[in-house]
Amino acid sequence: MKKLIAAVGTACLLGSCGVANAAASPFTDVPQDSWAYDAVAQLAADGIVEGYGDGTFKGKRAITRFEMAQITAKAMAKNPQGADKALVEKLQAEFSEELKNLGVRVAELERNADKLRFDGFFRLRQEHFGKDNNFANTSKAYVELYTHAQVNDNWTVESKEKITTNMKNDQGNTGLVELHNAYGYGKYKNFTVKVGKFDTVDGYAYTHEDPMRGVQVTLGTKLKAKIAGGRIGNPNNKFDADVVSGIFTYPIAKRTNLYAGYYYLKPWRLGANAFQCKNVAKEDYSLGNIGFDTLLGKNFRFIALYSRSNAESTVPVNRNGFLIELDYKRMMVQNPGSFMLMLRHLRVNDTTAISSRYEAYCQGRAYGTEIGGCYAPIKNVELGAKYFFGKDEVTKKTKTFVRTEAKYFF
Fold it and tell me: What's the pTM value of the predicted model, to 2 decimals?
């Protein structure tokens, strides 16, 4: 049997000369009474590993741990099943260090590596506000790093770390590092669950586009419902509220989807009669919206959304809000040369939205039009620009806003 093992080991070495040449020092012999000889003999008998092609033997000699690892690597490549698989796994465990030195990725190590993944992007952004916006112009760089950690077949832990620095600062050492969100994500046959602090994009980003702290359950196939409860807020004006919400989508045609959303909010209070930095003057209130999106031909998408709340405002605003959007083409960062053009007309304020993508244009009270576009010049790189022009519906002052940015995905 020792002759058979020696033959198998020599054959494996000859078949892996690149690895053998890398070995520069002698290796310890495997003891002659080791169970590994019997294991390899059984694998050879089952055709998992082989000696020389002519079936001859090349004499009796000792087998080193290096050679035994070579045999194990060859057996691993055959992907054996049943009892042979158990033998190979036992050999893997015994000679794992040698396999590692040979550059062989053991299946268990691969599984562990796959449990943690990273992706994200780096972004450079310039923003210019008109003189009546009362905002300072900005020049910032961001890194958003997403981590995905596998817990089991159904659950992962997801997080987003956001690093921001002010590019207008010559020292370049001031900025902000924050754990933007972190949550457990459970995926089952008929529903998904998020628990923790997670991103939300509701109402085509008109209603809310910031994290929620709580629980969210999404269920359904054709009629989809997203039910959530927790705490939601607006970082632009430090507004926070406890909330219960329900979002529903339904495809009424192959290219058309209906959308409806409802929120019950109870804002936090700073004092007896003062709510926290938001123009809402009611103990609790409801907000609802309804809309649809549809594809027009091959290249166009149209979106319409109507929003209304029963909130009382400290300033005279219209409690009816809307978003009308027309998109041309679709930009995909994986496809160089792809692009997208957007045209939007909207009215949004503190009563018609919670933390809208569009509120930042003029202190939570925007009424006007936005044009923009994005382009992928090379793979995984996006260039974008947008321009908003309109009025503050309270002061009636003209509001303008320009943003340019470049994003590098990894």
Answer: 0.71
